[in-house]
Amino acid sequence: MCCCGSRAVGGMMKNLIAPNVLELLKKIDLMKSKVPSEVQAFFDSALWEARFRRETGRDLRDLCLRRDRSSTHDAIFESVRPLGLIGHIMPGNSDWTPLLAILETSITGNTSWVKLPSGSSTEVILSQLKELGLDESVAVYTERNDIEELYKKSDAISAWGNESSLDEIRSKISSQTRFIAWGHRISFSYLTKWDDAASDLAAAIVKYEQQACSSPQVVYLEEASFDEAVSFAKELSQKLQSYSSSFPDIDDSSWAELSNFSETHFAESFLKEKMIIEAEDKSFRIVVDTNTAFEASILHRSIFIKTIKKNEIKEVLRPHRRLLQSAGINANPQDIAGLCEELFDAGVSRVCTISQMQEAHPMESHDGEFSLSRFVKRVTLSNPSLTVNALNLAQVDVAKTSTISTKSDFSAQKVENAHYYFKSGGSTSAPVLSPFMLQDYHLQMQVAADGLIAAGLNPKTDRCMNLFFGGGLYGGFISFTDILEKIAAIQYPMAGYVDTDFVLDMIVKENVNVLLGMPSYLINLFKLAEEKNIRLPVKKIYFGGEPFSESQRNWLKNIGVEIINSASYGSVDAGPLGYQCQSCDPGVHHVNTTIQKIEIVDLEKDEPVLDGQVGRVLVSSLARSGISIQRYQIGDTAKWINGSCECGDPSPRLLLAGRVGDIFKFGGSFINAQSIMKKLEVKELQIELKHIDLKDCLIINSPDVNTGALASLLELHDLHEVVELEKTASIEFKNTPFIKAISGKQPLVVDHRHG
After folding, report:
1. Are 645 and 418 in contact (CB under 8 A)?
2. Kind and range of the H or E run holding 318
3. Long-range contacts of 129-133 (CB under 8 A, 24+ apart)
4. What SS3 state is found at 737?
5. How do 596-601 and 588-591 pair as beta strands?
6. For 744, left (φ over 0), alpha (ψ -120 to 50), or beta?
7. What is the DSSP letter of 595?
8. How many of the other CB atoms lie within 10 Å of CB of 428?
9. Helix (H, G, I), strand (E, B), or coil: what is residue 226?
10. pTM score, whole prediction
């Protein structure tokens, strides 16, 4: 019988639809409160993202083909992809194993079918699949005949069972199908000291009634005598007796097997150094034996206690290495490391305390394997003609929300568990902090690093000096330190250091050929070098925060700089939005489609711009957890660039056209236009931003300014810093007709610096 809704007719499976993994992650979180406490840990999107990174080496939200920088072959690009159609043949000893197995294949982007034990009810799992949005991606079967054809059509079969059942399945699958076997495993306890172990051991035996692979079936007492083993068995029997009332009902055949087991070992106790302790109500049985041979228990609270010499561990266990899973140990701290190595060498895949034998955390491997890595394939591309570091995937569609979000919407969100906080521009004097989760931050730094490669940076030969500003919660310096680290570039983390003589000296002495920093600081540095008749070896500049004017670019190229590209197009709140390849004109950027969705809408209406029209940039982040960034107006204007790019990256390109709103970058600092109006106490004002004599110039246009206006403005800390202290910018005043927008409105800030 097949039960998969619209995906099956008469037992035949129709085409399944690949799961939307990002939507699945959201639904996993929503389902958490509806599942039993013992499996709630698995219903956490952060867990699945962390598992994917740990088990595949890639970020679930970033599966683009990326250049393998660890390889000596620069043309190799790598990533992971789903296998395709995965079949699951499930055991009957766990209600939640089927759904968790389906989640593993769905998170990795596969479609799947699952075969439940014959006669099983499908109502619950079908309801769960629908709630998770997987009803079109998964088929459910209960009868063997329904899946015979699927054995050969599937890309992989994941099966649980004993050796004979796994052999039968293996014989049916195609040679083109990956077989992923999860056979029965046996676990045991190994004690170098046992005075305090009986209570935990009894609880481990009773939990799951030894039906789990991690349940103890044998207990080894290191260097124990027979009498010591008997004494421990008696203590254990007292602990097990306290659980006798919870012994479950079992069928007659199981009772017969238990009876035969007890009688056999009782008879052998007259001939060997052996003893059996059995509960009066038959709820448990303990066999004490000096024969070290590893053997499986008959279960139903049956346990072997055996003595063993320290040097016998590998000799006894290694012949059974394929069957071994967990070893619950009790040992002195100084003995644990050596004991673990002995057990690992013998074939054990997991060592823990006795109380943790059946308390595995969700990030652990299973039977020594990372399951997610078995449901993906590693893919490579070799193409020396590509100049980019990563080939972005197609743009992901983001559902349009009812409204455009603003800075106030962003700052209203409360994030308590973020790992990084950076200062962002705000509409008031109070600082706004932009929070990042650790995994989000590092993913965004990797994407920004890809952009630097595309912009012409060569991490194998370039010597880079990071001159972005740091401190005061500013993210520029620390971010680019991490970005350069992602591509293993040689770097000098100087920051925007005030001792420019030292900076110039280090550039020359260390033959630094790449500078990263703010245009205002960099221009000032080059002018000082010119004044001191110092020839800098700099050939590449990667800038951020504000643009270079055409005159500044020409001047730099005349003194030997060959590449002047954006280090990254981004915002503090949304992260890296785009990058410049070597084919991009000034102001043009590729969109980082793996982590961002960008819209350009009309300047006044929430409608997409017409072809070639300038509009407002809206950002929806695809790689942020803990905070929502959906259709966020970051304050930039831009227009789309049609056609494909010579670099080979198919991601869309935009041309930046300036800023909207009140916050702007000036001389390396964020300035709030409203704070200028408030300081000058004027009714009418327009601010123009230009490049004059290679510096940023802020022009105040107002009929109301007085002679003390400049002194008043310089009381603002940021303006005082860039104009008076760093001398990277200037301020002028004029009284002329205000510039009007096409709409007839009068903008507060007009930025002429984009050229």
Report:
1. no
2. none
3. 129/99, 129/102, 130/5, 131/27, 131/31, 131/34, 132/24, 132/27, 132/28, 132/31, 132/103, 132/106, 133/19, 133/20, 133/23, 133/24, 133/27
4. coil
5. unpaired
6. left
7. T
8. 12
9. helix
10. 0.75
132 with 210, same domain: the answer is no
DSSP state of 405: B
Average pLDDT, the chain: 90
Work out whether the CA dihedral 354, 358, 359, 361 comes out positive or negative. positive
Q: Cβ distance 124 to 98 under 8 Å?
A: no
Distances (CA, A) of 364 to 98, 326, 370, 709: 18, 12, 8, 65
Looking at this protein, which amino acid is placed at residue 316? V
Q: How crowded is residue 752: how many other Cβ atoms within 10 Å of its Cβ?
A: 14
> Is 641 among the domain residues?
no
Together in a domain, 92 and 196 = no
Q: Do 178 and 200 fall into the same domain?
A: no
Q: List the Cα angle 415/416/421 in 5-degree steps.
A: 70
Lowest mean pLDDT among 195-209, 413-427, 741-755: 741-755
One domain for residues 309 and 279: yes
Q: Return the C-alpha torsion angle 196, 199, 201, 207, nearest 10.
A: -160
Q: Give 417's pLDDT tier (boundaries 50, 70, 90).
A: confident
Residue 538: both structure tokens together: 């700099």
Judgement on whether residues 144 and 278 belong to the same structural domain of the protein: no
How many whole angstroms separate alpha carbon 305 and alpha carbon 307?
Answer: 7
Q: Which tokens belong to 62?
A: 């970033």
Q: What is the pLDDT of residue 100?
A: 94
Q: What is the pLDDT of residue 172?
A: 92
Give the number of C-alpha atoms closer than 13 A to the C-alpha of residue 528, restricted to the C-beta side: 17
Judge whether 621 lies within some domain: no
Are the C-beta atoms of 543 and 587 separated by less than 8 Å?
no
SS (HEC) of 504-526: HHHHHHCCCCEEEECHHHHHHHH
| Total domains present in the chain | 3
Q: Which amino acid is at 49?
A: E
Domain that holds residue 322: 186-356
The verdict on 42 and 163 lying in the same domain is yes
Binned at pLDDT 50, 70 and 90, residue 661 comes out as low
* Digit-coded pLDDT (tens) for 222-257: 999 999 999 999 999 999 999 999 999 999 999 999
- CATH label of the domain that carries residue 97: 3.40.605.10
Which tokens sit at 236? 């254990």
pLDDT digits (tens, 9 = 90+) for 144-179: 888 998 998 999 999 988 888 899 999 999 889 999
Instruction: Please provide residue 94's backbone torsions phi and psi, each rounded to the nearest 5 degrees.
Output: -150, 125
- Asked whether residue 174 falls in the same domain as residue 208, the answer is no
734: three-class secondary structure by DSSP: strand
Rounded-to-integer distance, Cα 16 and Cα 4, Å = 10
DSSP bridge pairs for 219: 189, 305
740 pLDDT more than 70: no
pLDDT in tens, 572-620: 999 999 999 999 999 999 999 989 999 999 988 899 999 888 889 999 9
What's the rounded Cα separation, in Å, for the pair 187 and 324? 6
Task: Judge contact between 364 and 370, C-beta under 8 A.
Answer: no
Is the separation of the CB atoms in 91 and 97 below 8 Å? Answer: yes
Query: Range with the lowest mean pLDDT among 58-67, 155-164, 317-326, 598-607?
Result: 58-67
Q: In this structure, are residues 324 and 314 in contact, taking their beta carbons and an 8 Å threshold?
A: no
Is residue 468 helix, strand or coil?
Answer: coil
Residue 569 lies in a domain: no
**End-to-end C-alpha distance for the chain, whole angstroms:** 67
